[in-house]
Amino acid sequence: MVPDEIKEQLPHSAAEALPASAVEQRIVLLRDLFAARVDQTVASVDADIKLVFSNAITSMFATSLWIILVGFLLSLLIPVISLGNEVKPAEVERDSST
Question: What is the mean pLDDT of residues 89-96?
C-alpha cells in the first residue's frame, strides 16, 4: 500500500541514523511525495463520485420511465364514469330543434 519511493526513504535499523540535515531533506521529499499522491487521489475520487452520481440519476430516470408507462397503460383500463346528469342523445336533438 505504501509506494516504494516512500519505503526507500525510511531507515531500516537504528544503526542507520541520519544527521539532522538528511532528515530534513527526507521530510521535504516525503512531503512532496505525499502531496502529489493526495492530489492524484483527490482527482480520482472526484471523477468517481461524478460518475457514480450520473449513473444513479440515469438509473432513476430509466426506472421512473417504466413506472410512468405502466401507470399510463393502467389508466387506459379504467372505465369512463360521467360526473354529471347523463343526457341522452335523443333529448339533446329535441332541445336543439326547438
Answer: 63
